[in-house]
């Protein structure tokens, strides 16, 4: 193959180099379709094939400089069999199709609500990927931040994301009340909305300038019609303080190298990846089953010396391969709850924060719902998360999420909740 000369003039390669690249690519003869004979399930789910990626009208591409005009077939693109072209053979392709009458049939109201949540998620995905988000983070917070002593100080991107979602929920006409990690009190939207939405609009935004993955977390309940007679403030709060066991649906959206919406409607946990060419969330991970045991733990173990003895002993044991699983565990910690949880859901193990830091209503309940529907467990170190009755809107607690056997082994050490909470300045 001809070697490309990498001399530059300004910020463009020499025209001669680009012409050579065009000629070289055009001369290659790729097969019409390249299929993995035995896909590695750890990399490609069974519903993936490798197929040629076709590019047309390359003259319009900013990377080509208007010099590559031929059609190029590159056998490197990943295509999901569940895409609409194959929907007759492989089931549901988009989130909306899966939720509809041909799928789990969750009802028109919930389908419409998720359509608006989809729209909000796509706007937030564009926001966090924007080159202007750094300047937004450095500006004065937008709107009423509503901070209090027992909540993290919100940043502008959190507030913008919060407003995007609130606007979408208003437009849906299907939500009676919304409670957000960014607001002191619930927001009553409409009297006849059938649903209640609780959310963390932008988890992990503290580190967004470093391009660390961020996420949005949703929990959805039915409106408690039996308390409709109460004053607005009271019924708004009571609707949002429902036990996690009453969740109708839960979801998170991961904003990373791909935008992934992972949801459960009470039967299984499924992940849908945003196809930027169509704007659809396509099912890429149907019926996620978290392994019964993993080999990864996720925690900020720089705080090791603040931990209780039971947690220290557990971590020391699994790191040495002396626990119930005879292999040494690896540490993986992103410091973004959605990202750490997403990896744990796919690979197994345990993601945790042992101190009273994470919020029961906005984070612990929705994520515990999702992990349970995938065959795992959510615990505060002693109790099942979904069995805990919230008593405050911004109530905090320790959180341990992951594989069934890993959580069971962790709890067997007894003293795993970090009672000493000195606070950590970042």
UniProtKB/TrEMBL annotation:
Signal peptide: none
SUPFAM superfamilies: Carbohydrate phosphatase
Alphabetized InterPro entries for the sequence: FBPase_C_dom (IPR044015), FBPase_class-1 (IPR000146), FBPase_N (IPR033391), FBPtase (IPR028343)
Gene3D superfamilies: 3.40.190.80, Fructose-1,6-Bisphosphatase, subunit A, domain 1
Pfam families, A to Z: FBPase (PF00316), FBPase_C (PF18913)
GO biological processes: fructose 1,6-bisphosphate metabolic process; fructose 6-phosphate metabolic process; fructose metabolic process; gluconeogenesis; sucrose biosynthetic process
Catalysed reactions, semicolon-separated: beta-D-fructose 1,6-bisphosphate + H2O = beta-D-fructose 6-phosphate + phosphate
Hydrolase among keywords: yes
Keywords: Carbohydrate metabolism, Hydrolase
GO CC terms, sorted: cytosol
Transmembrane segments: none
Family from the record: Belongs to the FBPase class 1 family.
PANTHER family per record: FRUCTOSE-1,6-BISPHOSPHATASE-RELATED (PTHR11556), FRUCTOSE-BISPHOSPHATASE (PTHR11556:SF12)
HAMAP family reported for this sequence: FBPase_class1
Protein's recorded name: fructose-bisphosphatase
Species assigned in the record: Solanum bulbocastanum (Wild potato)
Upper lineage: Eukaryota, Viridiplantae, Streptophyta, Embryophyta, Tracheophyta
């Amino acid at each position: 193959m001809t070697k490309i000369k990498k001399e530059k003039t300004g910020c463009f390669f020499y025209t001669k180099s680009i012409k050579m690249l065009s000629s070289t690519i055009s001369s290659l003869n790729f097969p019409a379709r390249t299929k993995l004979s035995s896909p590695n399930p750890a990399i490609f789910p069974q519903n993936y094939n490798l197929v040629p990626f076709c590019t047309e009208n390359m003259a319009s591409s900013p990377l080509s400089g208007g010099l590559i005009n031929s059609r190029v077939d590159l056998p490197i693109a990943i295509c999901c069999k569940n895409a609409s072209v194959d929907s007759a053979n492989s089931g549901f392709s988009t989130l909306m199709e899966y939720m509809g009458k041909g799928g789990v049939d969750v009802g028109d109201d919930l389908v419409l609500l998720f359509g608006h949540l989809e729209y909000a998620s796509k706007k937030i995905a564009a926001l966090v990927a924007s080159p202007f988000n750094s300047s937004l983070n450095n500006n004065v917070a937008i709107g009423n931040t509503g901070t209090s002593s027992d909540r993290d100080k919100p940043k502008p991107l959190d507030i913008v994301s919060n407003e995007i979602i609130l606007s979408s929920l208003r437009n849906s006409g299907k939500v009676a009340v919304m409670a957000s990690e960014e607001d002191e009190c619930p927001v009553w939207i409409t009297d006849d909305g059938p649903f209640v939405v609780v959310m963390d609009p932008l988890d992990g935004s503290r580190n967004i300038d470093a391009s660390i993955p961020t996420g949005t977390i949703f929990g959805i309940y039915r409106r408690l019609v039996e308390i409709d007679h109460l004053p607005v403030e009271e019924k708004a709060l009571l609707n949002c303080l429902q036990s996690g066991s009453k969740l109708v649906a839960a979801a998170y959206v991961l904003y990373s190298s791909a935008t992934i919406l992972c949801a459960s409607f009470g039967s299984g946990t499924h992940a849908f990846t945003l196809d930027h060419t169509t704007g659809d969330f396509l099912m890429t991970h149907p019926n996620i089953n978290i392994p019964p045991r993993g080999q990864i733990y996720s925690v900020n173990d720089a705080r090791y010396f603040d931990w209780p003895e039971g947690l220290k002993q557990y971590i020391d044991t699994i790191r040495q391969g002396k626990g119930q699983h005879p292999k040494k565990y690896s540490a993986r910690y992103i410091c973004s709850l959605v990202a750490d949880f997403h990896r744990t859901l796919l690979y197994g193990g345990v993601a945790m924060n042992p101190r009273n830091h994470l919020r029961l209503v906005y984070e612990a309940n929705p994520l515990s719902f999702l992990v349970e529907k995938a065959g795992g467990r959510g615990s505060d170190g002693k109790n099942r998360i979904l069995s805990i009755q919230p008593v405050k809107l911004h109530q905090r607690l320790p959180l341990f999420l992951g594989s069934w056997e890993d959580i069971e082994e962790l709890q067997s050490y007894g003293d795993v909740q970090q009672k000493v909470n000195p606070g950590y300045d970042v």
